[in-house]
Specification:
The complex is a heterodimer. By secondary structure, chain A is of the alpha/beta class. Chain A has one domain: P-loop containing nucleotide triphosphate hydrolases (Rossmann fold, 3-Layer(aba) Sandwich), CATH 3.40.50. Chain A has eight helices and twelve strands. By secondary structure, chain B is mainly alpha-helical. Chain B has one domain: Orthogonal Bundle (ABC transporter involved in vitamin B12 uptake, BtuC). In chain B, 80% of the residues lie in helices and 0% in strands. Chain B is built from 16 helices and no strands. Chain B is globular. The chains are: A alpha/beta, B mainly alpha. Chains A and B meet through helix 2 and helix 5 of A and helix 3, helix 9, helix 10 and helix 16 of B.
């Protein structure tokens, strides 16, 4: 990681720790995330991946240590941050069209009524075009597929031209085709607009080609490094405190023998499908 | 009573011109309430608060009947009852399930209190009945001014929080991430809703408030999802129902509420039919590009295979 080394990191955590009651999710976390870096956060359920995002969003206080975004203390609702939530389908009767959801991302946080309709509309058109959603701009949200809705989430998150893009399992429950489309869109924002991307996922394979570094959280411990450094039998066995096997095949990573297989992988089932092509 | 005389007592347009002049205040009141109900109703639908409206109206009824009993102003009584109920729901009912059970608990309590106060009340029976089913002739100029003034305040407040409230209503998680004060807005809206319910009760009565605050917005949502059009249609439907209801009710001795609720209901039925015809024909605004669709399907297959 030589690029941007002399610049202020977009995200900087120092001695950061988070705990709920007596249970420490992670502590002593030092990490800098640079502009244009694709940073994946991995780990089993309950390891504090989503809480990590909430800290960056300012919705969750650190228990110890400090965090800055773009050199400043974290501030709730910062326009420097774009956020893509977990895919949750909108109810069929949600009273919004695709473009209205994106428009909320542009100016939904402002008080009063929308007055500069033309400016907002132009911005919305540009964002819809960017994510390839123009054809269903006027379709009610509830009638769109999960993948289409998630593209709109990307457009919504990019509305403020964020320096930092936070993604909370954005590919969950999408089919392979849409997984690729959505992760490519996020990668495009990362490379072309030089945004830092923090991508929380429990499955690295759909984004393995894009990921620069990984933060792996498990059992109150963590490891930061490139996928090659972190996704190894030795490192994961140490993190999980039990024998875990990491197998690489066709550029994919399969983790076998996880202690909490029921809450975790996914990959075993998916790997067969993904290697089929 | 034969059918002809029943119809005559429902639709009676004798001396219509003279009557019309007498009830101008009521018509204005109906128009103001229609406007307010149509606007507030869109958020009631977005926030899934139909049941809450019902709960608030029962407490509002209790407040109004208490005011009637002690000889104080009914409007203030119903305002106090509904704002208290709305605040309670806004503060305690964070989750939908909580909210529904709280409403289920306070609604019969409010209704019971109201019945108690009315039973103790020694005055005219028409006053009692009016609180539940609405009345038309009683709106004097001072009442109209209070009503319109309060409605304007509510509408201005609603305009001030319109955008973040929309955001928080349809997409709360994202709104919170963007720094929208989701919880504060929820409580603020409940207060506005409480005031709107109290005002509506003056015309349509506690039992039929839903016809003003739910049905028009629900009907509008059947035919469009454009946020702006939903508001316009909802207001149009609500004003049509209230003003139309008053005009139809004029000559008869029947309370205004059946007219308002029937008009409101008919509008909803028509919108529902239009909506389902459109859904059947698959009209939803999607731009269909045949060659692109094929291309995507092929690409999808390559990826999956």
């Amino acid at each position: 990681m030589d690029r941007g080394i002399f610049l202020t990191p977009v995200v900087s955590l120092r001695g950061a720790g988070l705990q709920f009651g007596q249970r420490a999710l992670w502590k002593g976390l030092d990490v800098d995330i640079q502009a244009g870096e694709f940073f994946a956060v991995l780990g089993p359920n309950g390891s504090g991946k989503t809480s990590f995002l909430k800290v960056l969003l300012g919705l969750q206080q650190l228990h110890s240590g400090t965090v800055t975004v773009a050199g400043q203390a974290v501030e709730r609702g910062s326009r420097k941050i774009g956020y893509i939530p977990q895919q949750k389908s909108f109810a069929p009767d949600t009273p919004l069209r695709a473009r209205d959801l994106v428009a909320l991302g542009v100016d939904g946080h402002r008080w009063g009524l929308r007055i500069k309709t033309k400016t907002v509309n132009e911005r919305v058109d540009a964002l819809l075009d960017l994510v390839g959603a123009s054809d269903y701009a006027r379709v009610p949200l509830g009638q769109l597929s999960g993948g289409e809705q998630q593209r709109l989430r990307v457009a919504q998150a990019l509305a403020t031209e964020p320096e930092l893009l936070l993604c909370d399992e954005p590919l969950l429950s999408l089919d392979l085709h849409h997984q690729q489309a959505v992760s490519a869109l996020i990668n495009q924002q990362c490379r072309q607009r030089n945004s830092a991307v923090v991508f929380v996922t429990h499955e690295i394979n759909p984004v393995i080609d894009y990921v620069d570094r990984v933060l792996y959280l498990a059992g109150g411990r963590f490891r930061v490094g490139t996928p090659d450094e972190v996704m190894t039998t030795e490192v994961l066995s140490e993190l999980y405190n039990s024998r875990v096997e990491v197998i690489r095949a066709n550029g994919r990573i399969v983790v076998v023998g996880l202690p909490d297989a029921t809450t975790h992988y996914h990959d075993d089932a998916h790997a067969g499908v993904e290697e089929g092509h | 009573m034969d059918l002809g005389s029943i119809l005559h007592s429902i639709f009676n347009f004798e001396n219509y011109g003279e009557l019309l002049a007498l009830v101008q205040n009521s018509i204005w009141a109906g128009a103001v309430l229609g406007l307010l109900g149509g606007l507030v109703g869109t958020f009631v639908m977005k926030r899934d608060l139909a049941f809450a409206v019902h709960g608030i109206s029962e407490l509002s009824f209790a407040g109004a009947s208490f005011a009637l009993l002690i000889g104080s102003d009914i409007i203030f009584g119903s305002l106090a009852g509904s704002v208290a109920a709305a605040l309670l729901l806004g503060i305690m009912g964070g989750r939908a399930r909580d909210k529904n059970s709280i409403i289920g608990v306070i609604m019969p309590f409010g209704l019971g209190l109201g019945i108690l106060f009315l039973a103790l009340y020694q005055g005219r029976a028409a006053n009692k009945f009016g609180l539940l089913t609405g009345q038309i002739v009683s709106v004097d100029t001072v009442q109209l001014q209070v009503l319109a003034g309060t409605a304007v305040v509510v509408m201005l407040a609603l305009a001030a929080i319109w955008r973040p409230l929309s955001f928080a209503s349809v997409d709360p998680e994202m709104a919170e991430a963007r720094g929208v004060p989701v919880r504060g807005l929820a409580i603020a809206f409940m207060v506005l809703l409480g005031v709107s319910v109290a005002l509506s009760i003056q015309i349509v009565g506690a039992l039929l408030v839903l016809a003003l605050l739910i049905t028009p917005a629900a009907a509008a949502l059947r035919v469009t999802t454009s946020p702006r059009l939903v508001v316009v249609l909802s207001v149009l439907f609500a004003v049509t129902a209230t003003v139309g209801g008053i005009l139809l009710a004029l000559g008869s001795r029947i309370p205004i509420s059946p007219y308002v609720t029937t008009l409101s209901f008919l509008i909803y039925v028509v919108c529902r039919i239009i909506g389902s015809v459109r859904a059947k024909r698959g009209i939803n605004g999607r731009i269909v590009r045949p060659h692109v669709a094929v291309g995507e399907a092929v690409e999808g297959q390559t990826v999956a295979g």
